[in-house]
Amino acid sequence: MGSVLSYMNPTTSSPTLHFSSKPVYLSVRSQSDSGQVESYTLRSLIESKCPSLLTEYRPAWWLKSGHLQTFYCVTGDFSKIDPVEYDRKLLRLMDGGTLGVDFTPPASERTLKDDTPIVVVMHGSHESYVRSILSPVCAQVEEGGLGYRGAVVNFRGCAGTPITSPQLYSAGHTDDLRQAVMYISKMYPNAPLIGIGFSLGANVLTRYLGQEGHRSRLAGGCALACPWDILKNSLRLEHNFFYRQVYSKALGRNLLRLMRSHLSEFSKYTPTSENVSSALSLLSTLPERPNLISFDDSVTRFIGGCSPPFPFASALDYYTWASSHTQLPHIRVPFLAISAEDDPIVGHIPIEEINGEDGKEGNGWVCIAVTKGGGHLGWFEDDGGVAGVKRWVRKPVMEWLKTVGEGVFLAKESEKGSIEAAGEIFVDNDGWIREVGREGLGCREIEGGGRVHGVEGEEGLLAGL
Q1: What is the pLDDT of residues 37-82, one digit of tens each?
Q2: Which single residue of 81, 282, 324, 371 has CA 20 to 30 Å from 391?
């Protein structure tokens, strides 16, 4: 009887917030006087501006465990919830690849000022968890939204973006995000950009911010259900029978379907690309439900990014390289990550990298908020009725995006040292948008794109990782 009551009444608690013992200081506009500047540490900023992170999260009674929260993400029907319309722009990259950047609200629906904050999302315009954030963030202020602009970066081959080069996407490759942000910055030079990533997209965002440091074109970041140490997560998935049969094979199957949908496009590159030839040869030997590591060992380690560093000797080598926890000490913009203790896909949360434990240096720019429940990108709580639920995480994320987008306009380290800025963006004689000091990167808009409906092609959580 006790176990039944425990199931019906899940334990509630406030998220545990982890900060470095060595703070940095942020200059923030005063809400009462935009000309006045106040100084905050990241801890005091979050405690004063993001109150939802200080209140308890109560999982829906019928979604108590992380497994149930995650399964509901996959099986729930969200097609009529948080509808979002986009204007798609197709970007051709200098290596021949193509990205799809989806802007919302569409230009025909509403005109926004050029300095309106932009939330840059990684990745998957149609995913329900992406729309659950973009819908209120981009809603008008009169409707309870923030009135922001959204820009979803759809990686190569995802959400209807075509394959036009011998390369797929991966959890570790950041140059595609780097070039998309360059394009958005060129379009809206006066707008602050704030990055938000979900799962694999959170990993890409974290790596980008760490690699860029002070050069980041994103003024801040938010990572939800980031996989952090991909090698440890892989070992956890593959060494547990239930996790291997349910999660690893679901992830591997969805990636296999994605790859097969682009088989004819990739086949064009087999005469000239040894990496594609190796990947397609091994792809043909995979079963219908391969483990995730089997897919990555056959495909991702060959074509998941540019060469070098691809190809990798094995999937394990790729996982070590692609992990994002090693980049946490190098982030130099305000960064909030939210993870769940019961996430069945992410088994390791790198608290020591920001706390400064176990010999780690720590980082005062980073906060990791950990909830007891929530699963992988779930965080469903009761919303009245018998089975009505809403996503708890939406409110703290909106508070964070508002804080960074409208308040934090200057950040400085407590330690001494010069701050390196991002390179100047220019358009060359051939029409490529490029950055000074990074001659190998560039993009330009090409024909195609058009209106995109946010719920079309919704395939569930595991397809978006």
Answers
A1: 888 999 999 999 999 999 999 999 999 999 999 999 888 888 888 8
A2: 324
**Whole-angstrom distance, CA of residue 372 vs CA of residue 374:** 7
368: CB partners within 8 A, 6+ apart: 17, 18, 337, 338, 339, 349, 350, 351, 354
* Of the residues 293, 322, 351, the one at which a domain ends: 322
Span 378-397, pLDDT tens digits: 999 988 654 588 999 999 99
* Strands 335-340 vs 220-224: parallel, antiparallel or unpaired: parallel
Neighbours of 140 (CB within 10 A): 12
The Cα-based distances of 350 to 173, 198, 224 in angstroms read: 21, 17, 14
Residue 16 contacts residue 349 (beta carbons within 8 Å): no
What type of residue is 90?
A: L
C-alpha distance across the termini of the chain, in Å: 38
Six-digit token string for 174:
């950041």
C-beta neighbour count of 78 within 10 angstroms: 19
Strands 193-198 and 220-224: parallel
pLDDT tens profile 120-168 = 999 788 888 999 999 999 999 999 999 999 999 999 999 889 999 999 9
Give the structural domain span for 251: 232-322
**Reported pTM:** 0.93
pLDDT digits (tens, 9 = 90+) for 223-276: 999 999 999 999 999 999 999 999 999 999 999 999 999 999 999 999 999 999
Is 5 inside any structural domain? no
What does the alpha-carbon distance between residue 207 and residue 227 come to, in Å, rounded to a whole number? 12
